[in-house]
Design brief:
The complex is a heterodimer of chains A (153) and B (666).
Chain A (H helix, E strand, L loop, with lengths): L2 H30 L1 E5 L1 H5 L9 E7 L5 E2 L5 E7 L4 E7 L11 E8 L5 E8 L8 H10 L13
Parallel strand pairs in A: 1-2, 5-7
Antiparallel strand pairs in A: 2-4, 2-6, 3-4, 4-5, 6-7
Chain B lengths: L1 H29 L2 H5 L1 H24 L6 H6 L6 H6 L5 H21 L6 H25 L24 H30 L4 H32 L13 H23 L3 H24 L12 H25 L14 H33 L3 E3 L1 H24 L7 H27 L4 H26 L4 H7 L2 H26 L1 E7 L4 E4 L2 E12 L3 E12 L2 E6 L2 E5 L4 E5 L1 E3 L4 E10 L5 E9 L2 H18 L2 H13 L1 H12 L3
Antiparallel strand pairs in B: 2-11, 3-4, 4-5, 5-6, 5-7, 7-8, 9-10, 10-11
Helix pairs in contact in B: 1-3, 1-7, 3-6, 6-7, 6-8, 7-8, 7-12, 8-9, 8-11, 9-10, 9-19, 10-11, 10-13, 11-12, 13-14, 14-16, 15-16, 16-17, 16-18, 18-19
The chains are: A alpha+beta (153), B alpha+beta (666).
Chain lengths: 153, 666
């Protein structure tokens, strides 16, 4: 084998080795960090284990929001109008958080069946419904006629 | 009437771009000088008519013409004038028109600043861009015409611009980002023209380099502006969230960074040719992907425009044809390029190769994380999301590895560098950086963290290695000043950009590891201490703006017994759209930011709020500014200009005819 060929092979092997390590690490990181999405109905049916990091999409049930007077703790109910999940969150809620509004929460269920939300996401356009929320309502068969994703923004 | 003129201009631009996309390329192929000479005037024509179209849209906004559907959706009579004007890019249709107009602007500049290149090459470049812009304008006319009217009953008033967009960040970020994005189309066109003509040499790399550098510099600023805007507008105190729409600019930027380094090897050593071309295609694909993701509605994010399936398919078509077509051309032509392979494992070529591999792998893993939820949903019908932990796990270690090589690269030599030379050069650098990394956090912040120490060592490693390189270069000159003067502009560009990386790294590390935040409920007169600062809520008041109403709290900040500043965070309600919005109060400083987000009122004047103290956060954007200046300096190197002048002198008659061609009315 000529010298420059051997060198070229060396570089190719080096690149290939680097790439396979990178691919391996990437797939590992990916498998560790997927947040599966559930609807309130799926949660109510016990498909989710306590402690598993998930996302839930749904509407904030009207009249369910209770905020503590002396702290930032908030309790509310996320619903797909078929089943409810109680949510607990400590922190400031997004601008567009409102009763009857579609939201996505990120966190995990505790042993008492309350969802401890580490993050609450609300869309910036009140007429816009995120695919997650829409999927939850569609699955429960409770999507209002007008809830289709609408041009906006 | 004016909107119809805008529509009409778009159609004319479409016709001209159809000619531009065919005649000059055919002319270059069949060696027809007349067709070749059409490239520049046609480009000017496309630019003029797109300019007219975008002016017509701006006019419709300024005159509150709510019969135009796009204006009615994104403006309001109460909207301040500067936002009326910039609401042009406040939604999908208008921002796509801006995008297309930007491309026309780049094309015009290629037409003007290409005197040193052969005419048929310029014709091919402009032709390729002509095909691209033809696709864009066709897409606009077919699915998203910004001039569509509401007939028969236009609304009396508009729905108002999204309140989150009524901000200086919105005026600056989208145009800059688009300009950087679209700039990579130019580099792409150079690569395709090179593939078409089979001309892939050092000269080609030299022509491409300034364009790649400028596009890269502008994209850097665009991304940094977006990060800065998100930091103060979205109110969570972060500066990067791995949002699905933030990622494509990042992917493009990483490919672009790999590209400008690979171009250096192609220009200086005539190597990595086909790799460079592939990178140009990838960087361009990244920019297209960005539009695709934002405009197709496939991903949810703060940026997402509304979804419309017909648009999605059209964009997918443009994406498939341009990326697929160029990759096919690449597969056919690239094997014809003969590359040499004369370098050692410790040469600069090799270190640049390592740089490229790391950058491309990072870009690919971000790409995977961004698109994986979409693919997963298509295959299994389950919705998933991939959050920041994935991206941080992959990206941070890769960048750390890269920064080790950022230090070594400039000190190494082309072809071959001996290990002993490198060790001698880097020994002291390593020692000094270890010292800084270990001592700096203890003295300045009186805190210690392993991660912060590692990043500080890397940042000093980069800076000291550059310092060592400069002192080497200056050492055998008669005086230091003379030595510094003898270094080229592109060298200084590299120095600045690399220092920018170090500055950004310091900012990112220190904010990430030493920020403090606290969510509290404060009644008037109550105080809370955070990071050595005492925040006291003085009270709150009702406020009224031009198109919003709201509340404003007043907080005094005391540090070491003196009042440092007074902060006024706000909560606004935009009247026309009924959307609430939080306005942060920030006391910005070179070494730290104080940052207050107002939550909600909880009776008796008490407010929930989140307070942040963020050390060195400004350095993140300062680093980006350094990088951008570096990129621009490198593009202004006199070796590009000198060639231009030489070429102009050589072909004096030819350039006269060129000027005449440009002056022709389009």
């Amino acid at each position: 084998m000529k010298v420059h060929r051997r060198k070229r092979l060396g570089v190719i092997l080096f690149v290939a080795a680097g790439l396979s390590v990178a691919v391996g690490l990437t797939l590992y990181a990916l498998s560790q960090n997927i947040d599966l999405f559930y609807t309130p109905t799926q949660v109510a049916q016990g498909e989710v284990n306590a402690g598993q990091r998930i996302r839930i999409g749904g509407m904030v049930r009207e009249g369910s929001v209770q905020s503590a007077a002396d702290s930032l703790a908030v309790r509310f109910v996320a619903t797909d109008y078929a089943n409810d999940v109680p949510i607990y969150h400590e922190g400031i809620l997004p601008d567009l958080f409102r009763e009857g509004q579609g939201i996505v929460v990120e966190g995990s269920l505790d042993n008492a069946g309350v969802f401890q939300a580490s993050r609450v996401l609300a869309k910036h356009d009140e007429n816009y419904m995120s695919p997650e929320v829409k999927a939850a309502l569609d699955a429960a068969g409770t999507a209002p006629e007008s809830a289709a994703t609408r041009p906006g923004t | 009437m004016i909107p119809e003129l805008g529509s009409f201009s778009l159609i004319l631009a479409l016709c001209l771009s159809a000619l531009l996309g065919s005649l000059p390329i055919a002319g270059a192929h069949y060696n027809n000088p007349v067709w070749i000479s059409m490239a520049r005037p046609l480009t000017a024509g496309v630019f003029v008519f797109l300019g007219l179209a975008i002016s017509a849209l701006a006019y419709a906004f300024i005159t509150d013409d709510f019969s135009v559907s796009f204006v009615a959706q994104h403006s309001n009579t109460l909207l301040p004038m500067r936002y009326k004007f910039t609401a042009v890019w406040g939604g999908h249709e208008g921002s796509f028109l801006l995008w297309t107009f930007m491309l026309a602007g780049w094309m015009l500049s290629v037409g003007i600043f290409s005197k040193s290149m052969p005419e048929e090459f310029v014709a091919r470049v402009l032709g390729v861009l002509g095909i691209l812009i033809f696709g864009y304008i066709l897409f606009m006319l077919a699915t998203s015409n910004p001039f569509d009217r509401i007939v028969p009953l236009p609304p009396a008033d508009g729905a108002d611009l999204n309140s989150a967009l009524q901000d200086i960040g919105f005026i600056l970020h989208p145009p800059t980002l688009y300009m950087g994005y679209v700039g990579f189309s130019v580099v792409f066109a150079f690569a395709i023209a090179a593939l078409l003509s089979g001309r892939m040499d050092a000269a080609w790399a030299r022509w491409s380099r300034p364009w790649a550098n400028v596009a890269w510099a502008i994209l850097t600023v665009g991304i940094a502006l977006g990060s800065w805007w998100a930091y103060y507008e979205l109110g969570w105190g972060g500066w990067w969230a791995w949002d699905p729409v933030e990622n494509p600019p990042m992917i493009t930027w990483l490919f672009g960074t790999a590209l400008i380094h690979s171009l250096a090897v192609t220009e200086k050593r005539g190597m990595f040719k086909s790799w460079t071309v592939l990178l140009a295609i990838l960087a361009f694909s990244g920019s297209l992907l960005g539009t695709f993701i934002t405009r197709s509605g496939l991903l949810t994010s703060v940026h997402a425009f509304a979804s419309d399936p017909s648009r999605g398919f059209f964009i997918l078509g443009i994406l498939g044809i341009s990326i697929g077509g160029s990759l096919l051309l690449y597969a056919l032509r690239a094997p014809l390029m003969k590359g040499s392979f004369g370098f050692e494992y410790t040469s600069r070529e090799f270190f640049l190769l390592v740089n490229n591999v790391i950058l491309v792998v990072s870009a690919a893993s971000i790409f995977l994380g961004t698109l994986f939820p979409m693919v997963y949903q298509a295959v299994t019908d389950d919705l998933i999301s991939i959050g920041p932990p994935y991206f941080n796990t992959i990206f941070v270690p890769l960048m750390m590895l890269l920064f080790v090589f950022v230090g070594i690269g400039p000190l190494s030599r082309w072809k071959q560098t001996s290990w002993t030379y490198l060790a001698a050069q880097l020994g002291k650098v390593l020692f000094a950086s270890l010292l800084v990394g270990l001592i700096f956090p203890l003295i300045v912040l009186s805190k210690f963290s392993v991660a912060a120490t590692i990043t500080l060592i890397l940042a000093s490693w980069i800076v000291f290695a550059i310092g060592k390189d400069i002192s080497n270069k200056v050492a055998n000159k008669r005086s230091t000043l003379r030595g510094l003067k003898s270094l080229s502009l592109s060298y200084y560009g590299m120095v600045l950009a690399h220092i920018g990386i170090a500055v950004m790294l310091i900012g990112a590390a220190l904010t990430s590891f030493f920020s403090e935040e606290r969510s509290v409920l404060l009644a008037p007169g109550e105080s809370v201490e955070l990071g050595g600062y005492l925040f006291t809520l003085e009270g709150s008041a009702r406020i009224e703006g031009p198109n919003y109403i709201g509340d404003e709290a007043e907080l005094t900040v005391v540090n070491d017994g003196k009042v440092l500043t007074v902060l006024y965070p706000q909560r606004r309600l935009y009247v026309a759209s009924g959307t609430p919005s939080t306005e942060m109060a920030i006391d910005a400083g070179f070494f730290r930011d104080l940052f207050v987000t107002l939550g909600e009122e909880k009776g008796a004047g008490a407010w929930s709020m989140t307070l942040y103290v963020k050390p060195f956060v400004r350095w993140i954007w300062l680093g980006a500014i350094f990088m951008a200046i570096g990129g621009t300096l490198a593009a202004g190197d006199k070796r590009y200009r000198r060639l231009r002048i030489k070429a102009a002198e050589k072909s004096g008659r030819e350039s006269k005819t060129q000027t005449a061609a440009e002056l022709q009315p389009a």
